[in-house]
Design a protein that fits this description.
Blueprint: H1 12-30, H2 35-58, H3 66-77, H4 81-95, E1 101-110, E2 115-122, H5 129-143, E3 150-159, H6 167-189, E4 224-227, E5 233-235, H7 247-257, H8 267-285, E6 291-296, E7 299-304, H9 313-323, E8 331-340, E9 375-384, E10 389-399, E11 402-405, E12 409-410, H10 420-426
Antiparallel strand pairs: 1-2, 1-3, 3-4, 4-5, 6-7, 6-8, 8-9, 9-10, 10-11, 10-12
C-alpha cells in the first residue's frame, strides 16, 4: 500500500512549540539531579505548553469550526487540576518568580504484607536513592536485630502548589493535553501527517504521541526497594503490553476465549464484565489474573500485576500508580483469584463433594494462607474516585473435564486493603 505524502502543517507554529515541549521534557529528565538545569527546563516546558494554545488561538480564523473542537477541548482541560496548575505556573514564571520547587524523598516502610508508615523528607537534589538505601543498610548493620519487611524510596521534584504530583509527570500530562489539541487541529484540516521538521533527537518528530512512549513509564529517578532481611536492593521495572489490533490476533482471541463482553468505561459498570472475562480466562488458561485496570478520560489501561509470595502487595499497587504519572484516572477494577470460606469447607459453596474437586493451579496461584481446604473463587473489586465501590466473588472448583461454579456473591467480601494507594491518590 502506498504511503500518502505529508501535507503542509495546518498549525506549524503551534506544532513546533509542541515539539519544543517534547524536547524540554527530555532535557528536564536528563538533568533531574541538577537543581539549576532542572529548573531551567521545567520553566521552558511550562511556557512552551502554554505557547501551543496561545498560537492556536491566534490562528483560529483558519478553521470555521474552531470554537466547536477547541471549545470542547477547553471544557475537558478545565476539569484537570494539573492543567489548571500549568496556567498559574506559567504566570508565576513570567510575571512573578520561579516556582517554589522541592526535592523530596518519600520513604515507605512495609512489613511482609502492607505499608506500616510513610514519610516525606526534603533532600538535596543531587542525593540519589542509592545513598538513602545505603544509610538504611548501615543503620540496620549496627542495630544487629533481625528485621523483615521492605523500605521503598521514591525520589521526586514537586511544586508547593502541586504537592501530590511529581513534576515531570505533570509536564507529561500537560503534553498529553496539548498534543491532543494539536491533533484536533490536524483532523479539522484533514491532515494526518505534516511537514513539521524533525529535531536532532530521534523521537522528536512531527508524529504526535500523547503518551510519550519514548520516555517509558515511572518517575525519572527509578524507585528503589530494600529487603531488610536479606539486604537485597531492587529497582522498580515496568513492562509494556502493546495493543495489537490485527484481525488474526482478534480471531485467535475469540476462538481461544470466546466472544468478549461489551466494555464499559465506568469502573463500577465494568465489574460484571470483568467477572465474565475472568471466567473465560479461567476456562481457557487455568487461571485468571491478577490484573488492575484504570479508567479515565474515556479510556482504560490494563496492568498485569505479579505478586511475589514475600512482597507486600500494596507496594506493587503503588508502583502501578507511579507508572501512570499525573494521568487523571477516576476508576479502577482489580481482578484475581482468591480463597473463600472457612478452613475445611471445601466444596460447601459449590454443592459438590470434596472428593470430586482437584487441587488448585499452584503454578499461578499461591498456597491458601489459612491452611488450605477452602474453595477457590474469582474476585473482582471496582472503585471510583467519587466514592462508589462494588465487590463480586464467584466460588469455583476444578473437576475432571472442566469447572464447577457456585453462586455469584456480591458485596460479601471487602475491598482488599492493599488497594489503599488508589484511595490515597484520589484524596
Amino acid at each position: 500500500m502506498a504511503i500518502p505524502e505529508p501535507d503542509a502543517c495546518p498549525c506549524a507554529s503551534a506544532h513546533r512549540r509542541l515539539m519544543d515541549l517534547h524536547e524540554d521534557i527530555h532535557r528536564a529528565i536528563e538533568h533531574y539531579l541538577d537543581e539549576n538545569e532542572f529548573r531551567r527546563w521545567l520553566n521552558s516546558a511550562i511556557q512552551n505548553s502554554r505557547g501551543v494554545t496561545f498560537l492556536l488561538q491566534k490562528q483560529k480564523a483558519r478553521w470555521a469550526d474552531f470554537d466547536v473542537w477547541y471549545g470542547g477541548w477547553q471544557d475537558e482541560a478545565r476539569k484537570n487540576p494539573v492543567l489548571g496548575w500549568g496556567v498559574t505556573a506559567r504566570n508565576r514564571i513570567v510575571k512573578e518568580e520561579d516556582l517554589a520547587t522541592l526535592s523530596q524523598a518519600i520513604i515507605g516502610v512495609y512489613d511482609t504484607h502492607r505499608r506500616g508508615y510513610e514519610d516525606v523528607f526534603v533532600v538535596p537534589p543531587s542525593t540519589p536513592q542509592e545513598a538513602i538505601i545505603a544509610a538504611f543498610l548501615q543503620v540496620a548493620g549496627r542495630d544487629g536485630k533481625e528485621r523483615k519487611g521492605w523500605i521503598r524510596v521514591e525520589r521526586r521534584w514537586v511544586d508547593d502548589q502541586l504537592p501530590d504530583y511529581e513534576l515531570v509527570a505533570a509536564l507529561r500530562e500537560m503534553y498529553r493535553a496539548v498534543a491532543k489539541v494539536v491533533r484536533l487541529a490536524h483532523t479539522a484540516s484533514g491532515v494526518e501527517t505534516c511537514l513539521a521538521a524533525s529535531f536532532t533527537r530521534e523521537c522528536v518528530t512531527s508524529e504526535i504521541d500523547p503518551d510519550l512512549r519514548c520516555l517509558g513509564p515511572g518517575n525519572p529517578a527509578p524507585t528503589m526497594m530494600l529487603e531488610l532481611e536479606s539486604g537485597e536492593v531492587a529497582t522498580t521495572r515496568y513492562g509494556r503490553m502493546e495493543r495489537n489490533d490485527s484481525e488474526d490476533l482478534a480471531k485467535f482471541g475469540r476462538e481461544h476465549y470466546g466472544q468478549p463482553p461489551k466494555f464499559s468505561t465506568d469502573a463500577i459498570a465494568h465489574v460484571d464484565e470483568r467477572m465474565e472475562l475472568s471466567m473465560q480466562f479461567l476456562k481457557a488458561d487455568g487461571y485468571a489474573g491478577p490484573m488492575l485496570m484504570l479508567f479515565g478520560d474515556g479510556r482504560a489501561r490494563l496492568f498485569s500485576v505479579a505478586f511475589g509470595d514475600d512482597e507486600p502487595r500494596e507496594m506493587k499497587i503503588a508502583a502501578v500508580i507511579e507508572s501512570v504519572g499525573a494521568w487523571q484516572f477516576t476508576g479502577a477494577v482489580f481482578s484475581s483469584e482468591t480463597w473463600i470460606g472457612l478452613p475445611g469447607s471445601k466444596g460447601d459453596l459449590l454443592g459438590v463433594p470434596k472428593s470430586r474437586l482437584l487441587p488448585s493451579n499452584r503454578e499461578f496461584f499461591g498456597e491458601d494462607p489459612k491452611g488450605g481446604d477452602r474453595d477457590e473463587a474469582l474476585f473482582v473489586a471496582g472503585l471510583s474516585a467519587d466514592g462508589r465501590q462494588r465487590v463480586l466473588a464467584r466460588p469455583f472448583g476444578r473437576v475432571l473435564g472442566g469447572y464447577v461454579f457456585g453462586q455469584l456473591l456480591e458485596d460479601e467480601m471487602a475491598v482488599p486493603t492493599f488497594l489503599r494507594p488508589l484511595w490515597e491518590r484520589w484524596r
